Amino acid sequence: MPRWGMAADLDRCTGCGACVTACHAENNISTVGPYQAMRGRAKHWIRVERYWEGEFPDVRLKFRPVMCQQCGNAPCEPVCPTYASQHTEDGLNAQVYNRCIGTRYCANACPYTVRFFDFFNPEWDKPLHLQLNPDVSLREVGVMEKCTFCVQRIKAATIQAKADETELKDGDIKPACVQSCPAQALVFGDLNDPESAVSRLSESPRGSKLLEDLGTHPAVTYLSRQTQV
Amino acid sequence: MTTVRPSSLLALVACACAWLAAVGCGYIDTTVPPPPLTGPGLPGESRAVLTTARPNLRAALDDFLVRRPEPVQPIEFPHNIHVGKQIACTEYCHESVTTGPVAGLPSVRTCMICHNAIATDRPRIQQITQWRKEGKDIAWQRVYGFPAPSHVRFNHAPHVRAEVSCETCHGPIGQQTVAQRTVDHTMGFCVNCHKEKQAPLDCLTCHF
Amino acid sequence: MDRRSFIKLTAVSGTTAALASCGNPENQLVRFVPDEDIVPGQATWKPGVCPLCASGCGLTVRVMDADKDVVRDGQAGVVTIYAAKKLEGSTDHPVNHGGLCTRGQASIQVTYHPDRITQPLKRSGARGEAKYDPISWDDAVTELVGRLDALVSAGNQRALALLGQARTGHRALVVQQFLQRFGAPAPVRWEIFGDDLLRRANALSFGRAQLPTFDLANARFALSFGADFLGTWNSPVSQSHGYGAMRQGRAGIRGAFVQVEARMSQTGANADRWVPVRPGTDGVLALGLAHLLMAAKVGAPDAAGRAGALIEGWSAGLPAYTPDAVEKLTGVAAAKVERLAREMAEQRPGLAMIGGPALAHTNGLFSALAVNALNALLGSVDQPGGLSFTPQFNVAAAAKAAGPAPDAGASLEELAAGILAGGAGAPQVLMIDGANPVFAAPKAWRVRDALENVPYIVSFGSFLDETSALADLILPDHSFLESWAENVPESGSAVAVATVAPPAMAPLHQTRATVDVLLDVGRRLQTPLNLPWESMEALLGITFATLPPSTEGGDAWSEAQEKGGWWGALPAALVAAPSGAASASTVAPASGFAPAAFVEPQFDGDPAQYPMHLLPYASTTFYDGSAAHLPWLQEMPDPLTSAMWSSWVEVNPTTATKLGIRDGDLVDVTSAHGTLQSTAVLTPGIAPDIVAMPMGQGHTQFTRYATGRGENPASLLAPLTEATTGALAWAATRVKIARAGDPDGRLVLFAGGKNEEGRHGPGEEHR
């Protein structure tokens, strides 16, 4: 049974935001428009955070791509009254849309602010809807949504491997963000496979987890940006 | 005329106060949003929108009450005759079910593969030939399939590979004329079989 | 009654009432027969080429079935088509290695844009009113042919002009050949962030009028002067791929990176050290480093060959560029200069890059030559870990269209001036192919006035923008997914690349590929042009057939169509001569080019009145504004501010305090040429005398998503140019800023909370 995880190498990440748009394209995330965006309702399942340090001229700016950490001890799971937010055996935090009744307690509990609520029915100006990915649900008003580690790709690859009677190899499954990153800063794979790239990167001395002290056991390891010169 | 009980009146007043309070502190937004983004207005420009909102109240109620009105097909296609000619489900008409998630509903192009020459004197064949000439396809109405709010992503291929027969889930369509919904696809129906066959049971197997 | 019965009663009666009152909306959807057999639910992957910038990243396009709304014979219905669903980088492509930038990911929205022009249009209102009537393709082409025939009859072939983007490759070849055979002048190619100046410098220093390719993956030290090479400059995806490898791709080795610029760009944020420098003095810093490197005997002066000889004082070791002199001119402390030089000497191989704002000055050529000399001194030219030039597939020769070298086209400034001057040579028919100078060019060039004076304008673009809205006839191109797409990358690859992709899907609308339209027009003229190609597909077949196949006896053309291109070692006969690139400044310099010396950059505006410098930078989301119409990009949070759907002005906090400006306040930004009002964002990553605004918003006409949104900093630009190349010095405008009012909510940020006043509290603004 795999345990899916990710590693984000902050020394490679350039803050370009390719992951953000790739995620929108893959997961049918609707554009909310300027009015709703102003009200904080834009849904960027993955975002690039910016941390400024210092004053001019000794300034540093660090980028960090943040997506659902698929926490092993997720604070969003026990608070859901309908068990729509739950943990799967393969390490994902599942958001089951049909169970969600929109209490938004999960977003309240999440320390990473990675959960987004559909405050209104999403709209796509036709023919932009032709781009929609048929492998991903369209979420209607009243449900929570968040990064799924591109579960549709995980499922498709697993089913295909079974059909072909082969084993899944490390690197066979790439979420949209991982695939698009020009600097190859994001790595996805099976943390239960000690040979996988993500396992090795998770052991890196540069590695740490986000808000680790909260005890959420994230499945994402961030490799710190190094300094030099 | 029923009398209004004091507790109902109290509830009504409480609701009104709650609404006022919510509006007052901005929780409910009653401001009018700005008009939608407008374009230059070119010939051929699209103004249509795809949305998950139901098109009308009836459709919304159908979804809410899980009502599936019986579909009315544009033409009475006799499954039994075709299956009787030894045409398997997955031959010609629902081919993609062995390799992908979707079974698909055949286009009139598929019908005309045979009916260009076969039974061309029958009125229904002449009807579809006429449609084909006009470029109209047969607008099949789905008999099975899950309502959108259940967010089910069913994948046929693994089931076909597991040698689950079409009749198991779709009933004896091969003996029907027009396809009838004879099997109720409740979640229990799927879960029971998954339990029996030791297929995956976690939510993300189907709901993602 | 009790509560439960009451609820049941209302529910049931309400439902019944509702059902009874509604009609019986049977599904009235008409379904039309698809044009081909469609397999539902299964994806195929096809090659593609991203068109949004000149990098030409290779794509694989995921194609699946979709239901498209159509109206046929007055009946509305749907038809199933194959539609592109997602773009991914092509794993094997030598430019992007499987990656794809944010604009590339969003480019799929070009095909499906609701405001895309769907059919040929003929102007029906006054020019600029953007009122058009539909017209058939036949009528449209006939009309254009008529106009061109009229020019020929009057013996006025020189009066045809074409204004386009700076692109090379097959499309550029057809355009160039069309104009040449017609007897018209060479096309005018213009982009605000064009790199012609760097091409000229490279021609002078290295004999290659071409943008460089950087082998970052093998470098130990990268020094960038203003180049946003991880975001928007040159070949960003290729450079990002190399950057990632430079940092963490080699066991135990991590390359260092220093960025020199006055405003921290998205690229600069990743630097180990960020060095602010006075505008227009990057070349001085580069020579200061060269001076120290030569003094440390890292390289002898003549190691830099021709590139060094172009710099005044080079052979003497650049005595004018001591660390103290450099400090005086650039503002970079002498100790910092010395330290940087030491690091460059120790960490080899190293390379230097220059681009973007550093070259957008009146002395930009000097700066570029200085950096070229520095690279040559470091021994980084054509070496691993250094810079090189991508061998260019000679498309013209492969297409047997070689003839005398084409003239360089006029500059945009010259074109506009020529039109306004009028007279016999002024253009009578102007074709627009992908350029939008009415939006981005300085007002002083009066491009809009000039276009108003052209009797007939034809546009091939897919969208109405400020420039194409002046067209009399619109012949909309296919989108890149619907036509034969190709690109011969100028940079970003160590090996020669010719990217090609067949159409990934059938055209959604009644558009036609512009190259095919031009070829058709060429055939239908009274004096046909006899262009030897039937169509774009035919042309591609001819040129690709000349390339060596991967296996003996194979077919390079069919391989390329499947793989998405050809790449590898070009046979010598197919390599374009180094100086051949289609741009204005590739003319060999007049002999007796005086060695370059530092000259103070000129700025427009009296410093007493306009104390700040304006930096209109290429935005990661909109680039130069040409991608502002894509909703995903409007909603994508800006990498440095997280702003969406907005414009803003970046101001240094100290400066802001002096001027009484708080974060989020409205400010007026005024130059000698214009004024605009936008929201101030305080950021530490900018020098106190610089204000910066992203280019790309402020469109007055560019689809529903970008029209009337934000402010256009190009409206403030002075028409200062670099003397030798005529390149626009877009970083040379001085401005003043003043507080204009409280925040009005127009700035939309994704990150951070706002307090009651609608502002970000101190420390929260850059969460």
The largest inter-chain interface, given as chain pair and residues per side, is: A-C, 61 and 89 residues
CATH architecture of chain A: 2-Layer Sandwich
Radius of gyration of chain A: 18 Å
Strand content of chain C: 15-25%
CATH topology of the largest domain in chain C: Rossmann fold
Strand content of chain A: 15-25%
Q: Which regions of chain C have little confidence, pLDDT < 50, spanning 5+ residues?
A: 5-26, 580-591, 761-767
| Class based on secondary structure composition and strand pairing of chain A | alpha+beta
Low-confidence stretches of chain A: none
The level of helicity of chain A is 10-25%
Report on the architecture of this protein.
The complex is a heterotrimer of chains A (229), B (208) and C (767). With 229 residues, chain A is of the alpha+beta class. In chain A, 20% of the residues lie in helices and 19% in strands. Chain A is globular. Chain B is mainly alpha-helical and 208 residues long. Chain B starts with 5 loop residues before the first helix and ends in an 11-residue tail after the last helix. Chain C folds into 4 domains: 30-111, Phosphorylase Kinase, domain 1, CATH 3.30.200; 121-192 and 394-574, 3-Layer(aba) Sandwich (Rossmann fold); 213-388, Dimethylsulfoxide Reductase, domain 2; 612-749, Barwin-like endoglucanases (Beta Barrel). In chain C, helix 6 (196-206) packs across helix 12 (364-378). Chains A and C meet through helix 1, helix 2, strand 2, strand 3 and helix 5 of A and strand 3, strand 4, helix 2, helix 3 and helix 7 of C.
